[in-house]
Predict the 3D structure of the following.
Amino acid sequence: MKAAGRSVWARLRDGVAASDPGLLRLTAGLRTVGAIALTLAVLSFLDVDVTRLVAGAMAAMVATFAIREKQRGPQAVTLALGLPVALTSVTLGALLSSHVVAGDLFFVALIFSAVYGRRFGDRGTALGLIGFQVYFLSLFVGATVSGLPELYGAILVAFLSSGLVRFVLVPETPAHLLGRLREAFRARLAQLVSAQLELLDAGPDEVEKALEDVRSGTARLHETAMMIQGRLEEGTSDEATARLVQRRVADAEIAAERLGLLLLTARSAERASTLTLHLPGAPVPAGGHLPVRDEATATLGRDLQALRMLVLRPVAEGSGTALSHVRNRLLGYRDEENLPPASAAVQDVFRGIGEAARAVLGLRIALEGPQDDSDDTPSTARSREELDAEDAAIDAGEDDSDEEEPTGLRRPTTRAAVQVSVGSSLAIVGGEFLSSQRWYWAVLACWIVFLNTASTGEIMVKGYRRLLGTVFGVVAGIVLAGLVGQHTWTAFALVLLCVFAMFYTAPFSYTLMSFFVTAALGVLYTLLHTYSPSVLLLRVAETALGAACGIVAAAFVLPVRTDRRTNDLLVTVLDRLADVTEAAVDQLSGGPAADLLDKARDLDQALADLRAATQPLTHPVTPLRARRDTARYVVALLETCAYHARSLAATAELLPTHPSIAADPRLRRAGRRIAHNIGAIAAHVADPQAAVEIEITGSSIASLLEPDVPGTPRYGRVTDRVLRHLQRLDESVTGLARPLKAPVAAPRR
């Protein structure tokens, strides 16, 4: 029973870790709710009125969510600096409440300063948020000069409560956060293996969903890997440890993605394109609707289950000897003599399982330290020796990037500050026409649609989502307000639930976040005795007005068109792809070692930025269906290119330690066309009139490695895998020419 209980608990823990990597959403919700609850408890003990309770609750929320630094020291400094900013802001709000024009002018100046402050990093962003939100708070509660002492006390209690919850009650260190992210990576890797097993067994009616689950699992695993890489510097003790974890995470991700591709190829009995794993809605290969049922595929199913168990359970936990036997068997597939009799495609899957087991072993050693090797077979011992040699060869690289920063109005923060100031000015004027008492809701809506957006399309999508969430939130607010009546603590309990839900859902659904915000406001209006259905309907009108003002400002004041932004980001992705490919090919050709892991990370980040920027183009409500399909196809092709480039980089990093992989100078010829085509596509996107052409004809990658001297070995000691990645990267890069309308060179005769 105890073992069963532990198993249920472990499954629950892994499910939570996979759904909320690092428990970031849970932590944000608990911290905010905890700060608000503590503030309310202290203020109620001091017997303040409801208005001050509301002010304290809102100040606690702002003091908690505004701070984004990763280290505890900088967080404490920002919180300490935020208190005088908040006190100054509420003071000016009270002083200017009776001076309409002066108050409006100051509000616009404050908005400009808050947005411009983003250029100073997390601290500048946090102080700007605190200044704006507390000024909004003063308008919401109707702050007056005579009531400032009580407001000062409420804000002071709120900031102290926020600090106590952040640093004592719900503490979080970078090392602990990184540990939870690693658990999330492990859980998501196990989920991806489960999805691959479902794909192997899926029947004709299930195969499309199974393939979509594999796509989703691959994307979720990559997302977690990116989150880990972004926190390695703060969460590890030294740079060598950070680079070791970075390499092992990258190895595991590549091995898992490659295993999915090999499974799809084995199932369909034809070579599957990597694009199939990245393009939503891409059809299953023609032969893949009916799975092969034989002894080899039955063994594959058992081995995938074993691999999943190996990912989830440490060898030292429970039946260690049995798990060691499983690990040894899977690692044995790295040796040709241990492969079961099967077709070449199915044997490739067994090899992929062996490589995935090696990646899991390396990841576990990097995260948990040396493992018991008393039960090792020769295959397992060889894998350990390879991993140890790789670990010893890790050398901390240096970041010598020196990109020129835009100046003046070309700087994104300056442009955004001007745009939001103009939009807020329009919202103030329009909001006054709708309501002289609650015009500030329009300003808030305008402000929010500019947060974390960089193009007109992104602002339009965010404005639409906020309006949609507000409309449904108004309905919920009316229902909740009618239920709680004047029961103060019941109302605050509902507000706390809504606040938790708001922060828990914010990272993946802006519409849901807006819904919970509006529902909570309906309850707060009830507490302030200002509730009525007309007030909540007015909020919908003010929100629509504010979003419209933001869209107008973004469209006509220093506009950044969605096409222009996506083109700029596309050029950046292509440049990063060229950097990784050229450095990897150069190293595989005998050139000097380069910092390939960081280059691959830069490529992944650039691709993530592009994926986010194309959301307005791929949104379900977009009327331009052809452009939507093109954007999805281009992003999927780039993800395919990134996978092969990462794989080349990972292989190149093995050169110093693996006798099976040696430099081959002929690879420079193989990579030359790829580099040319990437550069040509980037030049065409940057300037459609550029005199460049894409080479899509000529020798294959394999034939480019034909020996110059007859009778010499064809491939030297370069593995077939390198050639396959180069070939597929070449195909994916040339495949970009058609959707991007890049000129293609005429066939040679």
Observations:
- Residues 1-6, 315-319, 396-403, 711-717 have pLDDT under 50 and may be disordered.
